[in-house]
Every structure is written in structure tokens, then in C-alpha cells.
Amino acid sequence: MASIEIVDLAGTRLEGDWDAYVASRPDASCYHALVWREILSQSFGHRPHYLAARSGGAIVGVLPLFEMKSWLFGHYLVSLPFVNYGGIVADGPEAEAALAEAAMRLAARLGVGHIELRQVSQPGLGDGKGWQVRHHKAALVVPVEADPERHWTALSSRLRGKVRKAERSGAVFSRTGMEGLDRFYRVFAKNMRDLGTPVHRQRFFRTILERVPGAEILLVELGGLPVATALAIPSRDTIELPWIASDYDVSSYYVNEFLYWNAIEMACGAGVRRLDLGRSSIGAGTYTFKLQWKPDVVPLSWCYWLPAGGELPELAPSNPKYALAITCWKKLPVPIANGLGPHIVRNIP
């Protein structure tokens, strides 16, 4: 390979080349496309730093980064915040290392406390010191069969019974678009409050539905009320469910199980090869729940660069320092949590 140069996409005319490169790479996620730079910038106001590796006039690697800065959670670079995937995509180890080195130089110039790359597989990070890799999260991805009956018979009889109970109770599944956003957000916001987690603005999900072709809302209603929901994003041979929520008050009707089963049926009918149930922390309750649906477990490689003496960040609900805040948040009325949450969560990637 000829010598590699790194350019910041800002101020160049390489946007078309960037998206063409991402579209050509089977290991790139949908989030590497520039539409997500616009979605995340408009929704959260953070500054993007999109680095491209070029050789012989052609792009041979990309690294999309966002700079996040707050007095509460610190100053850092993330690829990519608020979504499941990001990090370096490149033609080979030389381009990977060049992008990693460029990210380190950017971090030093900006004075950030760390870099976080949300990789599926671990890239070549070169000889630069300060990189650490954690494998604490995994994606759970269901290989989709054309015949949903093959999925159904593979499930435990107990799980099938829960789906049937939801159906007997009158649960109704539907697919909708922007017209279902209010119902989606009602369930999602309440679920986040119940978990003790600040919620995104509804505008974030509106922008996704507006800008991402094929994005739609999956909805379960019981007695005419929304009780479980997901946002579905198609990408190549995959449908991803990055945001899933249900109302714990009606959990005895197994509406969440009903949602997951109908999502599998939907994926079978769509002719895709994979249904991505999203990432979970290994061993967490959501991880165990998703294992019931017979997914492939895809360990993720989250790569961190830290300056000398730096410590790995722990911006997670499992961190004991947030325990009191989470307990208090669960007690807030939903409208108050909805009003305060977006101002906090915009700084939690």
C-alpha cells in the first residue's frame, strides 16, 4: 500500500467518497454512514471529528468520532455515542494503525481524558501506548430462518406459553412509522424512568424516522394502550432493534415476550438474514432475557485509549457511585423525568 494520509472530513469534498467506502465494507455498520453524523449532531449538539485514511487518492479507512464534554462526566471522544456500533473500519492493519494514531493525536490536542471505540472486532491499534480492550458487552443476533415455525419450535415450551398468554390476553402487534412515535415514546420514557435512566428527547427518534430509510416502530398494545415497543432499523441483510422497551406494570401479560416473538416473525417475512436484538452487558438481566430467543452471541471489543495514569471510565448504571441517583430517579414523576433527562443523557454516550 502507498503511504497513508489522514484527513478530517470537515472542510473537504469527500462526503460521497466516505459513504461509498462505508457502503462497500461488509464490516461497517449503518452508523458509519454520514446520515448518522447529521442525526447525532442535530439531536445532541456534540462536535464530530470524522477521520479518513487515504492512499493513492482513495479512502482506505474511516473513523467517525464525537467529542463529548461536560462538567459531570468529563471530556472524551467516542465512536460512536448513543448507538451500538462504531470504531475503525479499514482495509488492513496499516490503515487501522494510522487511524488509531491520528485519534491519539487528536485526543492530545483536545486534552480529552479518554477515547472509546465501540468495535465489533479488535482493530490493529499499532504500537501506540495507552490502549486497553474490554469485552464486557456482546451483541445478540438471531440468525433468521425463512420459516418462522423453525424459530417457534426451537423456543422453550415455557417461553412459547408466555407468548400464547399475551395473545389470549388480547395483545396486538403492529408496525407503524411517524404516526406511532408518541405511543413509542410514552412506553420508552416510562421504561427508562423505571430503570432509573435519563431518557433521550423524542426529537432524537423523530429525526431517525425522518432520515433513515425503512426505519419503523414496532408496537404492542393491550386494551388499546401501548405497552411494549421497539425502533427497528434495517441495514443490508439485518434488522436491528437498538431501542426496546416495555411497561413493567403489565409484565404479567408477557407483552415483552410477545414483542420479541413478533419481531422474529417480521424478520422472517422481510427476508433478512439477521435480527440484531442490540447489545447487552454480559450477564445482565437483558442479556439473559435475550438468550431465550437463541441468538448468536457476538462479543464486542470496546477499545479505550487513556493518557498516562488514566483510569478506564465507568459510565454505567452498575457503577456504585450512581446508585443513589438511580434510586432517586426511579421515584420521579414521568413528566419531570422526561423534562430533566435529555439534559443529562446527552452527556452519557
TrEMBL record:
UniProt superkingdom: Bacteria
Domain BioF2-like acetyltransferase, first and last residues per copy: 157-290
Entry-linked InterPro entries: Acyl_CoA_acyltransferase, BioF2-like_GNAT_dom, PEP-CTERM_FemAB-rel, PG_Glycine_Bridge_Synth
PANTHER family in UniProt: LIPID II:GLYCINE GLYCYLTRANSFERASE (PTHR36174:SF1)
Record's protein name: FemAB-related protein (PEP-CTERM system-associated)
